[in-house]
Design goal:
The protein is α/β, with parallel strands linked by helices. The chain contains 11 helices and 14 strands. The structure holds adenosine-5'-diphosphate and magnesium ion. Magnesium ion (MG) binds next to helix 1.
C-alpha cells in the first residue's frame, strides 16, 4: 500500500481535555477517506496536526514519507489544506489571494499564472476574480479556499468540511471535483453529512470523543447496521406467532423484531427477521415461507442506513428497540 499519510498513536490534549486520543491510521494514494464524527469529536484537531498547524501532544505523523515534526517544510509542500470555514484574506480578490498563495508556495511567475488559470476554471471562479473575497457568497468563498488548496497540485489533500454550508448544487460540484482529483492523491475529508460518504469516499472512519470507533469501506459500515439485509414481513396475525418462532431458528437469522403491537384493520401484523452479521437471508426465509404455505402480504429486504450505524457508534444514549431471539 502506497501510504501518503501515516498517523501513528496521535494524541492531543488541551489542558484536561483529550481532544484526540491515540489515533492510528494511514491513507493511501487513490483513497478518499471520510472522517466522520459528531461536533467536537476531534476531526479538525487531527487535521490541524497533520498539516503542522497544531503540535501533537504525542504520536507521529508522516506525509509522503516526510515527518511533519522533523521535516515540516517538505511535508507541507506535499499538502493542500482547506481549513474549517475556508478562511482567506477578506480584502484580497481571489486573483490576488491565489497569486499570494502561489508566491508563498514558491512558484515562478509563468507556472503561477498557468496553475491559477487551471484551478480557476476547475472551481469556476472566472466571474469573481476581481471582487474582494469579503463580498463573495459562502459558496464562492469555499471555492476560493479549494482553489488555494489544490493550486500546487499536492499529493495529499486535507479538506475540513469542504461542503459545509453549500447549497445542493454546490455540494454536488465540490464532490465531483474531489472524485476527479482522487486517483493520484490521498484525500482526507471531514464531514458530518453521511450521504457524502456514499457519494465520494472509498473508506469511512468514524471518530468519537477523540477515538476511532470504526474504519472500513462504506459497505462494511452499512453491514454493521442491525437492520442490514433484514427481511420485513407483513402477514395475518393468527399465523404470525408460529411463523416468527419458526423463522427464528433458521441459519443466519439473528432474531425477530416486532414492528406492530396489535393487528391492523385487515388482521395483519409486521415483523422483521434480522440477519446475523448483515448476511443475506432472503432465500432461506422465502423457502421456509413457501414450505409452510404462510400467506405473506408483503415481504422486502432492508438496506442499512448509514445514519443508524453512525448513531449507534457515536451516541451512548440511543434507546435500544426490543429484540427477541438473542441478537448479540
Ligand atoms: N484550541 C483549543 N483549545 C481548547 N480546546 C479545543 C481547541 N481546539 C479544539 N478544542 C476542543 O477539542 C475537541 C475537539 O474539537 P475539534 O477537533 O474541533 O472537533 P470536530 O472538528 O470533530 O468538531 C472539542 O471539545 C473542542 O472544544
Ligand atoms: Mg471541525
Amino acid at each position: 500500500m502506497d501510504a501518503l499519510i501515516e498517523i501513528d498513536n496521535l494524541s492531543k490534549h488541551f489542558g484536561e481535555l483529550v481532544a484526540v486520543d491515540n489515533v492510528t491510521f494511514s491513507v493511501a494514494r487513490g483513497e478518499v477517506v471520510g472522517f466522520l464524527g459528531p461536533n467536537g469529536a476531534g476531526k479538525s484537531t487531527t487535521m490541524k496536526m497533520v498539516t503542522g498547524f497544531l503540535t501533537p501532544s504525542a504520536g507521529k505523523i508522516s506525509v509522503c514519507g516526510h515527518s511533519v515534526a522533523d521535516n515540516p517544510l517538505a511535508a507541507k509542500t506535499a499538502i493542500g489544506y482547506l481549513p474549517e470555514g475556508a478562511p482567506a484574506y477578506p480584502e484580497m480578490t481571489p486573483l490576488g489571494f491565489l497569486r499570494f498563495i502561489a508566491d508563498v508556495r514558491g512558484m515562478g511567475a509563468s507556472l503561477r499564472e498557468e496553475r491559477i488559470r487551471e484551478v480557476v476554471s476547475k472551481v469556476h471562479l472566472e466571474g469573481v476574480l476581481h471582487q474582494p473575497i469579503d463580498t463573495l457568497s459562502k459558496g464562492f468563498k469555499r471555492r476560493v479556499g479549494l482553489a488555494q488548496a489544490i493550486l500546487h497540485d499536492p499529493k495529499v489533500l486535507i479538506l475540513d468540511e469542504p461542503t459545509d454550508g453549500l447549497d445542493p448544487n454546490q455540494k454536488h460540484e465540490v464532490r465531483s471535483l474531489i472524485q476527479e482529483m482522487a486517483s493520484d492523491k490521498a484525500i482526507l475529508l471531514s464531514t458530518h453529512i453521511l450521504e457524502e460518504v456514499d457519494a465520494v469516499c472509498t473508506r469511512a472512519m468514524i471518530i468519537n470523543k477523540g477515538r476511532v470507533v470504526q474504519d472500513g469501506t462504506p459497505a462494511e459500515l452499512q453491514s454493521r447496521s442491525k437492520l442490514h439485509n433484514a427481511v420485513t414481513i407483513r402477514m395475518a396475525a393468527d399465523k404470525a406467532a408460529s411463523a416468527r418462532n419458526d423463522l427464528q431458528t433458521l441459519n443466519g437469522v439473528a432474531g425477530i423484531q416486532e414492528l406492530t403491537g396489535s393487528a391492523d384493520q385487515n388482521g395483519s401484523v409486521s415483523f422483521q427477521v434480522l440477519a446475523s452479521n448483515g448476511q443475506s437471508i432472503i432465500n432461506q426465509v422465502g423457502v421456509r415461507m413457501r414450505e409452510k404455505q404462510w400467506d405473506v402480504e408483503e415481504m422486502h429486504v432492508e438496506k442499512a442506513r448509514l445514519d443508524d450505524v453512525f448513531r449507534s457508534l457515536t451516541s451512548s444514549d440511543v434507546s435500544e428497540t426490543t429484540v427477541s431471539g438473542g441478537v448479540s
